[in-house]
Amino acid sequence: MILPGDTVLVGVSGGKDSYVLLKILAEVHNPSKIIGLMIDENIHGYSRADVFDFLKKTCHDLGVDCINTSIKKELGYGVDDFMLMQIKKYSSIKVSACTFCGIARRRILNAYARTFNVNKVATGHNLDDEVQTYLINILRGDLMRLIQLHPLSMTHSKLLVKRIKPIRAIYEYETSFMAYIENFKFQETECPYILQRPTLRARIRELIKDIEKFYPGIQIKLLKYVDEILEPLVKSTNTKPIELPLCSKCGEPTSPGRIICKFCELVNEVLNI
Ligand SMILES: Nc1ncnc2c1ncn2[C@@H]1O[C@H](COP(=O)(O)OP(=O)(O)OP(=O)(O)O)[C@@H](O)[C@H]1O
């Protein structure tokens, strides 16, 4: 996933997974080629600023540069702003905070990766996260998305920096254990929007957790199995690269067939543009 000459931007949230990722990366790769980026989501009562000082010190000890920014500063609207605008317009929630937040964070990570001229963006998605995402997309029958999730898949735009998930085969309990023995100070408050998390993911998480109790190792087997089935498809897709269209509003790459990207669509809808 990472070659000796690579420069990597790591998304660090203040949570255990991205901490474990940063720690391992700084040990196996040249720390001067790693940058940590923490994005504040602008959620009242859930400020990343509280953990940034601790994270900065952690990065300093690892020899890694660390920077921070916020969704509002980069894109004009934070998560709370988006949710308030939505409630004002529809008197209900049509798009979850997690959807807006995920799209915004990915966009910012990619923009910073371009600015700093790095060639990989790494996130701390663990095995449990990855198995849930695979299963969600299998249940939705979304083959294109499954192909994109595979570690060998290519990006389809000059403006997109390759995303990698180096700890995707590591169980969540293992990252928790490592963070614990390393005495890592977790962000203690939970995101107030947690209850709006997509129910399909929450249901799958509970189901798999339950099965794993009786059949230990089931998640790693599933990940390897799906990776293996997808590999020939990924390789054949890589030989026919497509160039994604650009959003007519913001100029960022968007999915085939779209005129404006998902981010602009979400914001424009609630703003009545
Ligand atoms: N605010 C953020 N700033 C930068 N990167 C982030 C942020 N939130 C999440 N990420 C990146 O996306 C990954 C997955 O995020 P998710 O929200 O699923 O958190 P998680 O599974 O609890 O991981 P973590 O323990 O690192 O918070 C994180 O490991 C991190 O690399």
What is the secondary structure topology, with strand pairs?
Blueprint (H helix, E strand, L loop, with lengths): L7 E4 L4 H13 L5 E7 L8 H14 L2 E6 H5 L3 H12 L6 H19 L4 E3 L4 H14 L2 H7 L13 E2 L7 H10 L17 H16 L3 H22 L22 H10 L2
Parallel strand pairs: 1-2, 1-4, 2-3, 4-5
Helix pairs in contact: 1-8, 6-9, 6-10
This protein binds adenosine-5'-triphosphate.
Summarize the structure.
The protein has 273 residues and is of the alpha/beta class. The chain contains eleven helices and five strands; from the N terminus they run E-H-E-H-E-H-H-H-E-H-H-E-H-H-H-H.
Protein architecture, described:
With about 270 residues, the chain is an alpha/beta fold. Helix content is about 50%, strand content about 10%. The protein is built from eleven helices and five strands, in the order βαβαβαααβααβαααα. Strands 3-2-1-4-5 form a five-stranded parallel sheet, sandwiched between helices. Helix 1 crosses helix 8 (about 170-180), helix 6 packs across helix 9 (about 200-215) and helix 6 (about 125-140) crosses helix 10 (about 220-240). The protein is globular, with a radius of gyration of 19 Å. It starts with 7 loop residues before the first strand and ends with a helix. The mean pLDDT is about 95. Adenosine-5'-triphosphate (ATP) binds near residues 16, 37, 38 and 125. One of its GO terms (molecular function) is transferase activity. Pfam families: ATP_bind_3 (PF01171). It comes from Ignisphaera cupida. This is TIGR00269 family protein.
